[in-house]
């Protein structure tokens, strides 16, 4: 199983939907740590969310609804974990989140 990754959700954005998202991640058994994070500068389109892991690409999303988009968030995490170095070549499994992507940074 891949090393755990972090799913950062902006703690400053209104409607961050922590409880449902945390429960869904736990139920799915994914090796993901949900991390409340201060402002990630996605204020124009809340909620901001970032996905990162050691030796993996980092993804930054805005305009995410952690409650309504829970299925797409889980699908994105699964796709990320399965991708070589976290580099998602085909984002269609990510559902609506592929349209919320604002940046992707390669691993160091």
Task: Describe the protein's architecture and organization.
The chain is α+β, with helices and mostly antiparallel strands. It has a single domain, classed as Glutaredoxin (3-Layer(aba) Sandwich), CATH 3.40.30. The chain contains two helices and five strands; from the N terminus they run βαβββαβ. Strands 2-1-3-4-5 form a five-stranded mixed beta sheet, with helices on one face. The chain is globular and about 35 Å long. 32% of the residues are buried. The model has no long low-confidence stretch (mean pLDDT 91). InterPro entries: DUF1636.
Can you give the mean pLDDT? 91
Reported by name, the CATH topology is Glutaredoxin
Q: Which stretches are poorly predicted, pLDDT < 50 over at least 5 residues?
A: none
**Radius of gyration of CA atoms, rounded to a whole number:** 12 Å
Spatial gap, N to C terminus: 21 Å
Shape annotation: globular
Helix content: 10-25%
Number-wise, the strands total 5
Main β-sheet description? 5 strands, mixed
Strand content: 15-25%
Strand and helix order: EHEEEHE
The CATH architecture is 3-Layer(aba) Sandwich
Strand order of the largest sheet: 2-1-3-4-5
Count of folded domains: 1
Category by helix and strand content: alpha+beta
CATH top level class name: Alpha Beta
Number of helices: 2
Pfam family, one: DUF1636
InterPro entries: DUF1636 (IPR012863)
Summarize the structure.
InterPro entries: DUF1636. With 108 residues, the protein is α+β, with helices and mostly antiparallel strands.
Keyphrases for this structure?
Glutaredoxin, five-stranded mixed sheet, 5 strands, 2 helices, alpha+beta, DUF1636, 108 residues, 23% strand, single chain
């Amino acid at each position: 199983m891949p090393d755990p990754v972090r799913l950062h959700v902006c703690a400053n954005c209104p409607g961050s939907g922590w409880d449902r998202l945390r429960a869904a991640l736990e139920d799915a058994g994914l090796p993901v740590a949900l991390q409340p994070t201060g402002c990630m500068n996605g204020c124009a389109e809340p909620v901001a969310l970032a996905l990162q892991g050691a030796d993996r690409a980092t993804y930054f999303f805005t305009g995410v609804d952690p409650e309504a988009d829970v299925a797409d968030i889980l699908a994105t995490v699964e796709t990320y974990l399965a991708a070589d170095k976290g580099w998602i070549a085909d984002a269609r499994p990510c559902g609506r989140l592929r349209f919320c992507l604002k940046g992707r940074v390669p691993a160091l």
